[in-house]
Amino acid sequence: MRWTTRALGTTGLSVTPLMVGGAPLGSMPSNFGYDVSVEDGVATARAALTGPIRGIDTSCAYSRGESERRIGMAIAEVGGVPGDYLLATKITRDLDTGDFSGEQMRKAIAGSLARLGVDRVPLLYLHDPENTTFEAATAPGGPVDVLRELKDTGVAQAIGVAGGDTATIMEYVRTGYFDVLLTHNRWTLVNRTADRLIDAAVERGMGVVNAAVFGGGILATGSSASSRYGYREAPEELLDAIREVEALCKEADVPLAAAAVQFSARDPRIASTVVGVSRPSRIAESVAAVELDIPAELFDTVDRVVAGLPADLGPH
């Protein structure tokens, strides 16, 4: 089976409604609460490369390159990146020293390409620029200059900015330098912080990718299994809203995880939704979640629940 693809802004790239998120398959127990073996990670990446979802999203920062390494092993096993596939990775600071210089970006992309076993990528992001200043990032010879150079030289077909804090990321969107926005944890069933940011990106012709629609897990497993949202303890008021959304989903006989995925996938502004997976079966489950018939009235009711939340709850 092959899904219909969508245009990723004005990049010339196409993408399926979902992309596979590579963070969990590299094993990040501090974020997700469980380990993933090399065998399971590679098997999941192999399934991602050969299944209906035609894109995978990773980063040099995910488990210090282990996610890229496992994806690279899977790429080698299937004989290279398929021609219709969107491989996306991200470059960022040195995780030990905090160095966020242009030279660090050059080192980061060299490491990413080596681990993935490729000489170019369709999509390359500047990852978590919240860890430097906008002035430093956009200075001559800085990270943004290097990223633009990588596009000019063909190492990346398109470049994007990926981060959390919406006010910070808005500064990068407004430069007009980037082709794609990736936002995470800020456009979900219970957090709508990225609304204006997404609008700003679309107005500029950027493609929009939305990640972490489960808020780190709680919108997949439910509040009985987790009390964390966005990798931190959630305020009680947010947990109350999540419980109310859970009850609405149960009443409608809709899995909470399916509602969380469809909330993003049904938004016409969003080209693709990144869903992190750590075992091959999760790929088919994610596809089924998008294809499930969910009444629009459920989302309307959830909107009313979330509208009552204070603006300063959860990550911004």
Short summary:
With 316 residues, this protein is of the alpha/beta class. The protein has a single domain, classed as NADP-dependent oxidoreductase domain (TIM Barrel), CATH 3.20.20.
Give a structural overview.
Helix 8 links the parallel strand 8 and strand 9. The strands form 3 sheets. An 8-stranded parallel beta barrel has the order 3-4-5-6-7-8-9-12, surrounded by 7 helices. A two-stranded antiparallel sheet has the order 1-2. It has a two-stranded antiparallel ribbon with strand order 10-11. The mean pLDDT is 94. The chain has 13 helices and 12 strands. With 316 residues, the chain is of the alpha/beta class. The protein has one domain: TIM Barrel (Alpha-Beta Barrel).
**Strands side by side in the biggest sheet:** 3-4-5-6-7-8-9-12
Can you summarize the main beta sheet? 8 strands, parallel, barrel
Question: What would the average pLDDT be, to the nearest integer?
Answer: 94
Q: How large, in whole angstroms, is the Cα Rg? A: 18 Å
Instruction: Quickly give the structural class.
Output: alpha/beta
* Count of discrete structural domains: 1
Question: What sequence of helices (H) and strands (E) makes up the elements?
Answer: EEEHHEHEHEHHEHEHEHEEHHEHH
Query: Which CATH class is shown?
Result: Alpha Beta
Q: Residue share in helices?
A: 40-55%
The proportion of residues in beta strands is 15-25%
According to CATH, the homologous superfamily is NADP-dependent oxidoreductase domain
How many strands appear in the DSSP assignment?
Answer: 12
Would you identify the regions where 5 or more consecutive residues have pLDDT less than 50? none
Overall 3D form: globular
Number of helices: 13
The CATH architecture would be Alpha-Beta Barrel
CATH topology name: TIM Barrel
